[in-house]
Amino acid sequence: MSSSLAVVSGASSGIGAATARALAAEGWRVVLVARSRPGLEIVHQSIAAGGGAAEIAALDAADGGQVLALAEHLRRELGSPSLVVNSAGLGAWKFLEETSPDESASMLAAPYLAASNLSHAFLPDMLDRRAGLLIHVGSPASRLPWPGATSYTAVRWALRGLHEALCQDLRRTGVRSCHVVFGEVSSPYFEHNRVTPDQLPRVGRLIPTTTPARCAEVILRTVRRPRREVVHPFTLRLFYLIAAVAPAPTRWLIASTGRRHSKKGLGVRG
Predict the structure, then answer these.
(1) CATH code for the domain of 209
(2) Using the 8-state DSSP alphabet, how is residue 185 labeled?
């Protein structure tokens, strides 16, 4: 790419941190974006210890003003990135009636608003250069929704919608949008969002758990060879294929092995 500067959101832990380290090891200068400065400092130190280059941007990417200020700062000091990895994400798995309006708003903030704001801020320079890559780290829920994760699912569909719309917008511009989807990942996400693996439909447990380091390898491969959608691991790709061929039976299988409402209206496994 024409620039070796990359912006990675959600970079304080999990997939974002692993991706930032992997990019830095490949020679990219990485701007680490997240709300948690202590987490970013740990990642920054590990990159510096490995001889890489990184900058800390402790901010809320769901705040458009903060993101635009970051974009102006980078243009003055480092130039504009040719790669943006949108890997920030929040979201407890709850039925809608269990989810407060504030919780729904926070789930919309990350991943959707954060990804939209970062893409918006850096897209003009990419278009001027006719080169650039936006990578959005999504969820299987954006195609295979399961019961008991209503707002989580809705905002993952919104993120995929952003990606699909960008693919249409960016035809023949030299700028690409990629949607990268992983199954369960062994990251702090589940602890931070009060999500437990038993909330996943039993059929979903057939998909092997992926490490953040392996996710970073997949993202790095996508940087080298962009594709519209990347799904990992193979078992999850197989689920996607089955859902495309037999959508109704797939929906039934996911619903029948997932959580159900009790007679009192509380989400429990049946």
Answers:
(1) 3.40.50.720
(2) B
